[in-house]
Amino acid sequence: MKTLEGTFVCVSDQAISLQVDKNAESVERANVVRVSVRDTSHRTGNMLIGAAIAGGAALALGLLANAPGSNEGNGCAGCVAGFAAAAAGGGAGLGAIPGNRTVYRAKK
Q1: Pairing of strands 15-20, 7-11
Q2: How large a percentage of the chain has pLDDT more than 90?
Q3: Is 26 part of a structural domain of the chain?
Q4: Is residue 36 within 8 Å of residue 99, measured between CB atoms?
Q5: Least enclosed by CB within 10 Å: which of 26, 28, 46, 60?
Q6: In what order do the strands lie in the sheet with 23-28?
Q7: pLDDT tens, 45-90?
Q8: How many of the other CB atoms lie within 10 Å of CB of 102?
Q9: Is position 16 within any domain?
Q10: How far apart are CA 9 and CA 17, in angstroms?
């Protein structure tokens, strides 16, 4: 089993061709197990969802942790906001990771 990553060139009944670095690579179709493409079509939506989930969860946890001291003047609303913003950024980063979509899989 060998993995090739490159730019798709063409496909025929006999082979699949890729541009790998500066070389053209052709693989006989009988030797191809799977072909996947990097799927970036939902990246923005995934980033927004990740930011909303992580930021909301961090905000809720921060507010719960901050509640006991807030009535005595010991609360830190800025800390909670910073914690939520950092978590939202992390969630957006995770949502930005592209996935792979399989477009061909050989029959077993």
Answers
A1: antiparallel
A2: 22
A3: no
A4: no
A5: 28
A6: 7-11, 15-20, 23-28
A7: 889 999 999 999 999 998 888 877 666 766 788 888 898 999 999 9
A8: 10
A9: no
A10: 5
Q: What range defines the domain where residue 80 resides?
A: 43-97
Q: Is residue 59 part of a domain?
A: yes
Alpha carbons within 13 A on the beta-carbon side of 3: 3
Q: Between the CA atoms of 88, 91, 92 and 94, what dihedral angle is there, to the nearest 10 degrees? A: 160
Q: Which of 59, 14, 28, 39 is nearest to 101 (CA)?
A: 39
In a domain, 50, yes or no: yes
DSSP string, 15-73: EEEEEETTEEEEEEGGG--EEEEEE-TTHHHHHHHHHHHHHHHHHHHHHHHHHHHHTTT
31 token code pair: 């030797």
Domain count, the chain: 1
